[in-house]
Design brief:
Distance between the termini: 39 Å
Low-confidence stretches: 178-194
Largest sheet: none
Strand content: under 5%
Radius of gyration: 19 Å
């Protein structure tokens, strides 16, 4: 609970970064804290000068080597910028009829949800960073199957309207992963950390499934669902998927055993 309070104080500006960094004693939790900060900052694509200064101040306070921090930043930005979507301004109208069957779309959505659920079970934190770009790519592919050549801005707006905030989602996942590691030093902490990771996996599965199915309904309707309707559709699908995730837990675990971290970037580009 103390660790949770530390992160909340930093996010709300109630506690200086250096003071918060001092609460993280082990090298592992310090590295994880920097990873979380980098990936949250990079979630919206690119880093502003203000974000770069914040990360440098945090890196210094945490005592993480510069080359290690730069490598993390390079990897995070490579992942967030990987989906090669259409150029800006190309998603205003439908350009072709639907080209993929309903059953094929369902299989695509199921496969993507299983894969993203599996990523949360991996020990490497960059796996979490790949989830949002993969969700963006899924929305793009579904829109394209209905004749829309979606640009990055439209996909981001669609996800935000549905209720899948990019930076917020990354923050929640990294906080869960990091707090699990922090709690690992206490009695029963490893069990609680594993439980948190399993919960995060269920969230990733459900959010990806709901996002895909909501996108299918939205583009099938020729984008006539209002923002309120889209959000309601997503929430209903998300709650339903969370209840059914247990039925696919074995499939998710099996997928986690097959995933190779070094293949994440190519999979996002080619998905």
């Amino acid at each position: 609970e103390e660790a949770t309070a530390v992160y909340q104080d930093v996010l709300t500006g109630k506690r200086p970064t250096a003071d918060a960094a001092a609460q993280l004693l082990s090298p592992q939790t310090r590295e994880q804290a920097l990873e979380m900060a980098v990936c949250v900052c990079a979630a919206d694509e690119g880093l502003s000068d203000r974000e770069r200064k914040f990360l440098e101040d945090l890196r210094s306070a945490l005592g993480v080597p510069k080359d290690q921090a730069q490598n993390l930043i390079d990897n995070a930005q490579a992942l967030t910028l990987a989906p090669s979507l259409a150029k800006p301004g190309t998603s205003t109208s439908r350009k072709a009829a639907a080209s993929v069957s309903d059953a094929e779309l369902d299989r695509m959505i199921h496969k993507s949800a299983i894969f993203n659920g599996a990523l949360e079970l991996l020990p490497n934190s960059l796996a979490t960073m790949a989830i949002v770009p993969l969700q963006m790519r899924l929305v793009y592919k579904i829109g394209k199957s209905f004749g829309y050549d979606l640009d990055r801005g439209h996909v981001k707006d669609f996800m935000a309207t549905a209720g899948v905030g990019m930076a917020g989602q990354v923050l929640e996942k990294y906080a869960t992963r990091l707090l699990g590691k922090v709690m690992g030093g206490f009695s029963g902490g490893l069990v609680r950390g594993a439980a948190k990771q399993a919960t995060s996996s269920a969230f990733s599965y459900a959010s990806t499934y709901a996002l895909g199915q909501a996108a299918k309904q939205y583009y099938a309707s020729d984008r006539k669902l209002s923002g309120v309707e889209l959000k309601s559709v997503f929430e209903g699908l998300f709650q339903g998927a969370k209840k059914k995730q247990g039925e696919h837990s074995a499939e998710i675990e099996a997928q986690a055993g097959r995933v190779k971290i070094q293949d994440l970037l190519p999979s996002i580009r080619e998905a």
